[in-house]
Amino acid sequence: MPSEPIITTGEVLLVYSDRAYQVSLPNGKKVIAHPAKALEAQQNEIVPGAKVTLEMTPFDFEKARIAEIAPPS
After folding, report:
1. Is residue 33 part of a domain?
2. What pLDDT, on the 0 to 100 scale, is given for residue 1?
3. Whole domain around residue 47: which residue ranges?
4. What three-state secondary structure class fits 19?
5. Going residue by residue through the chain (73 aa), what tens digit of pLDDT does each one get?
6. Which terminus of the chain has a lower count of CB atoms within 10 Å, N or C?
7. How many of the other CB atoms lie within 10 Å of CB of 23?
8. Which long-range contacts (CB under 8 A, 24 or more apart) does 59-64 make?
9. Number of domains composing the chain
């Protein structure tokens, strides 16, 4: 039975490539994140300092999917 994803926020620290980013979680942990397919058109908005919403599986806390990019404030 699949588990529901863990939803959290983070801040992009580094851009490794157009499909891999280092993101800092609110607790200070750093994870490798990749954007969801739905964000392909917005990939140029994923820059260091960007606030993002992440989905994580409860089975692997080292990786995450970027589900949404917060609008700049």
Report:
1. yes
2. 53
3. 6-69
4. coil
5. 577 899 999 999 999 998 999 999 999 999 999 999 999 889 899 999 999 999 999 889 999 999 999 877 6
6. N
7. 23
8. 59/3, 61/29, 61/31, 62/31, 62/32, 63/31, 63/32, 63/33, 63/34, 64/8, 64/10, 64/23, 64/31, 64/32, 64/33, 64/34
9. 1
